[in-house]
Automatic annotation (TrEMBL):
Domain Prenyltransferase alpha-alpha toroid: 118-505
CC cofactor: Zn(2+)
A biological process term (GO) from this entry: prenylation
Function: Catalyzes the transfer of a farnesyl moiety from farnesyl diphosphate to a cysteine at the fourth position from the C-terminus of several proteins. The beta subunit is responsible for peptide-binding.
Keywords of this entry: Metal-binding, Prenyltransferase, Repeat, Transferase, Zinc
The family this protein is said to belong to: Belongs to the protein prenyltransferase subunit beta family.
Protein name per the record: Protein farnesyltransferase subunit beta
Annotated EC: 2.5.1.58
Amino acid sequence: MSVRIKASQRRVRAVFQPKTRTTPTAPSSTSPSTSSTPPIPTTQEKSKRQSSKMQRMGRTVDSGPVSVPDLFCQKPVIRDALETPTSVTQDETVESMVPNLNARAPRLRYNDLGVPRLERQKHVNFLQKTMGPFPSQYLHADASRPWYLYWSLAGLTMLGEDVSSYRERLVETARAMQNDTGGFGGGGKQTPHLATTYAIVLSLALVGGEEAYEAIDRRAMWKWLCALKQPDGGFQVSVGGEEDVRGAYCASVIITLLNIPLDLTTDSPAWTPDGRANLLSGLGDYVRRCQTYEGGISGQPNAEAHGAYAFCALGCLALIGDPREVVPRYLDIPRLIAWLSSRQYAPEGGFSGRTNKLVDGCYSHWVGGCFPLIEACLGPIDDAPSAQPRQDGQTATTPSIDLPAAPETLFSREGLVRYILGCCQNPEKGGLRDKPGKGPDPYHSCYVLAGLSSAQHQWQLASRGEDEPSAAIDDPVWLVLRHLDDVRVYEQEDVVRAIHPVYAIPHKHQQDMRSYFLAKEGF
Ligand code: FPP
Ligand code: K
Ligand code: ZN
């Protein structure tokens, strides 16, 4: 594995040099940024400053009409001549998005670079409603109630809301979902599952506080995880259920957040008489077997690569040791990057989940969220000056540490931001969505916002100081850096909170829960 991003390579790669088209006027323009924090120029300031640079890049910027680079609003120039049902659907999808990408969608408030504003308050209103009772047509989703809680709480948190007021209700709900033999099910008396347990544990971390943490029966959780651990290294998602890379990721998150002991119970399917196997044994090799001939990751060995599983694989590996060593040890990174990069389409700017499929807002996280992880793994391995991780989880207005140069980025942040803000916002009732024409829902709201956070920030890894608490796994610290991109197309007020690239919740919430359990003796 020899891919390394050179810190000096800061130029945007000239993959495609578009002509610029100037659209008539935007439906409405933005008000200038009111931010008093100087480091981040507003779009207007930036557009003036960058106009000559952008002209060199094939983009013209003028203060009047909105200009969107052809790359992000015109059908691709190079096309496969073979027409198939897939190519027809793809063309129709792009066609339906053109007004949104080209600053012509009604009811969105576009800035001068043809990017809509984040309708923050509308999304907050939408997600607050989804924390209330659901109408009867949601009955089929009963077993996913923990997921709905996590999506709404995480979405609200990324939008800047304090969700600690939900603590009491959440604790009561979570207690009813917990099983005596460990783990959380979708509801009372439902079989515990790693996915619903993951969602509840993260929700409890989001509302925070001792009462929330103490709602978890960690001893039962440990025994249940031992029952799910398989001799080949992976995890079943429920006792006797399927084994897949979701299980590997969810288990790693639960083990590290709750500081679960790694020892196996003697009745675990993975227990060995020499007593050497533990909860993490063989996990990296299990993930390795999920990388496919395409370079992407499948749910189980020998299946089709899908973006959701790429995130799970990277997330799992990033938690079982220092990601800078573990990720390249188990995955072919150049081939994975090639596959992930192929998921980002133009002109849409968003990501698809798999080969020959359509872009969808949720892959802004499942695929988009892989890039910060890989970028951090490929960043300078020698530690940055001893720096404190940001504690507040708020979006940084200044970088936590002053790096000589940010590593070059591996995806088009501008494209992703254009897709998210232009195509994924429901402009009427709020909430975020798969694509124009689809309704908003908590799942897409959460993962579209997580993707926006990935596009707006950059992370770097630094080793833990001697005196910093560390668990059985010697993990490094994730530092949030403000990404000072060459092409900034959104305003300061459109920035969402930084999240931890693996746990997908703000650093502070993850750190508080982890420190609480690290400080505990025994269960
Ligand atoms: C295909 O759906 C989707 C999958 C094969 C995997 C979906 C899994 C997740 C989104 C999350 C898993 C992660 C955890 C942590 C539980 P599709 O055929 O409807 O969509 P597509 O056409 O975009 O592939
Ligand atoms: K989909
Ligand atoms: Zn989706």
